[in-house]
Amino acid sequence: MYNQGAVEGAANIELGSRIFVYEVVGLRQNKETDQKNYPIRKSGSVFIRVPYNRMNQEMRRITRLGGTIVSIQSLTALEQVNGKASFGNANSEGNGKATPVNANSEVKSFAKLPAEEQLKNKDNTMTQAKAKKDAHSDVPVNIYRPNAPFIGKVISNEPLVKEDGIGIVQHLKFDISGGDLKYIEGQSIGIIPPGLDKNGKPEKLRLYSIASTRHGDNVDDKTISLCVRQLEYKHPESGETVYGVCSTHLCFLEPGADVTITGPVGKEMLLPEDPDAKVIMMATGTGIAPMRAYLWRQFKDAERAANPEYQFKGFSWMIFGVPTTPNILYKEELEEIQQKYPDNFRLTYAISREQKNPQGGRMYIQDRVAEHADELWQLIKDEKTHTYICGLRGMEEGIDAALSAAAAKEGVTWSDYQKELKKAHRWHVETY
Questions:
Q1: Average pLDDT of the residues of the chain
Q2: Model pLDDT, residue 88
Q3: Which of 161, 208, 276, 307 is deepest in the core (most CB within 10 A)?
């Protein structure tokens, strides 16, 4: 998941607002919709008023009717932008794809810690260690910029959360065959959602880690994939349910829809080229996105056939944190690799709401790291080992604490050792 302040965070919903407006396209007409007096623009957008306590129910109903939600806006914010509460004419200029959406940022990954812990963290800006300026000079960056983006097409949009899981997480595959977009594993792309922000300006891009290899899921160099969770949380003061602008836009896109892409960006989370490398991956929720790209490149048959110069013979260990078993993203893929390559791939889950740590609390990823700290420390000392961390910033402290204890047994100060790892480009972090 990536970086540099262009992330999404909590929507700025006013405390008194309890009515939201959904802009929906593609809503098919039937007995139910014929009986509703929805104002409809020439663009085909339908505007529906929804009480906040019925937002999820209305989303499911719209999906059943074949509609796609392209924006969610508080009634109060619309009145501020348009000067009146009239939806049929809101933002009628432009391409008609979306009305103003009152949000300035949004976290792009699945919740890995209790909601109250996330809401205490007001500064949700993603951070990433900076690579040296001359490192990876041949890596493609900024082929497409915000002022000249690439317009891709949605090929598929598949749910990743199984029945009884928590939240909405989607695997999206985009067609990029019509442009020059190239990327490699560990990079990110920007997505620019349609519509205007609270200041009446075009929405800014949000960065998402790429979940596919450089050859794409079809291994034909024509696609790029993302793993996206719809942000949903309670406002810490008003108790309002808040939905992310860009994540909601992406999670409800249908095949054939356009998507505005920038990038790629990022050089910090790249895999080593050494096929004998050892790779430690610590991910939570949609932090698995870059890890999936790594594992496909390392182990998938079609991908290995496409890369005769890179035949992975090393060792990868993934520690993956999720709230429930149905929330194990790409579970079948991960366990297939584990079964096929038991000597080269190790998979460890931390399922917070189903497993207990030694203290009797929830099992988070930092608890698994503490459980295996001595083994991880021995692996980290190997100069061929690279460690990747992707997820909420809060998990770093627990990981450092566990490894500090293991290093201290040998008289090593972990913080100093970690600095050396970063200088050697063997410690890679992408948190938000």
A1: 80
A2: 32
A3: 208
Contact 222, 203 (CB under 8 A): no
Catalytic: 246?
no
Please confirm, yes or no, whether 430 is among the known catalytic residues: yes
330 is catalytic: no
**Mean pLDDT score, 387-411:** 93
3-state class (DSSP) for residue 286: helix
Same structural domain, 282 and 161: no
The token duo for 161 is 């959360």
Q: What are phi and psi of 40, to 5 degrees?
A: -125, 130
Range of the domain at 260: 131-265
Catalytic residue among 144, 208, 349, 364: 208
Instruction: Kindly state whether residue 71 falls inside one of the protein's structural domains.
Output: no
0.90 exceeded by pTM? no
- Is position 116 within any domain? no
Of residues 123 and 379, more confidently modeled: 379
Flag whether 38 is in a domain: no
Beta-ladder partners of 392: none
Integer Cα distance of 337 and 330 in angstroms: 11
Query: How far apart (Å, rounded) are the C-alpha atoms in residues 82 and 78?
Result: 6
From 185, 203, 240, 430, the catalytic residue = 430
Is there a single domain that holds both residue 260 and residue 292? Answer: no
Indicate if 396 belongs to the active site: no
What residues pair up with 262 in beta bridges, in sequence order?
A: 190
> Hey, what long-range contacts does 292-297 have (CB within 8 A, 24 or more apart)?
292/211, 292/212, 292/227, 292/330, 292/333, 293/185, 293/186, 293/210, 293/211, 293/212, 293/213, 294/185, 294/186, 294/388, 295/333, 295/334, 295/337, 295/345, 296/212, 296/213, 297/185, 297/213, 297/214, 297/271
Which of 291, 269, 322, 284 is closest to 430 using CA atoms?
269
Name the pairing type of β-strands 232-234 and 241-243: antiparallel
CATH number at residue 353: 3.40.50.80
Pick from 142, 149, 213, 207: nearest CA to 184: 213
Total domains in the chain come to 2
Do residues 178 and 307 share a domain? Answer: no
Residue 35 located in a structural domain: no
pLDDT at 74: 61
Catalytic residue among 17, 74, 105, 209: 209
Overall size of the chain counted in residues: 432
Residues 243 and 161 in one domain: yes
- Asked if the peptide bond before residue 193 counts as cis, ω within 30 degrees of 0, the response is no
